[in-house]
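<goal> How does this chain fold?
<sample>
Here is the protein in question

***
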Amino acid sequence: LALARLCGWSAYHTHDSRRSSPGFPDIVFVRPPRIIYAELKTQRGRVRPEQEYWIQMLRDCGQETYLWRPSDWDEITGVLGVIGERRRGDE
C-alpha cells in the first residue's frame, strides 16, 4: 500500500471481510485510466474457489486482475510503476 500511494494510486481494502460476499479480491487500486484488482496471498496461501471465481470473472470482463505473493515483488513494482515514471508525463 505504501508503494502504491507513493506511485499515485488510490487503494481500497476491506479490512474485515467476514460480512461481505466471499472471494472478492483484497485490494482495488485506482489511478486513471487504470483499475487493478489484486488478491494477496502469503507464499503458501491457498486460493479458495470463490477467489478463483472472482479473479476469472474480472479477467473475463477485461479487467486487470492479479494474484500476488511475496515472491511477486518485482512484478508488483513493475505493475504499480516506479515513482519517477509517474511524474514523467506530468512535466
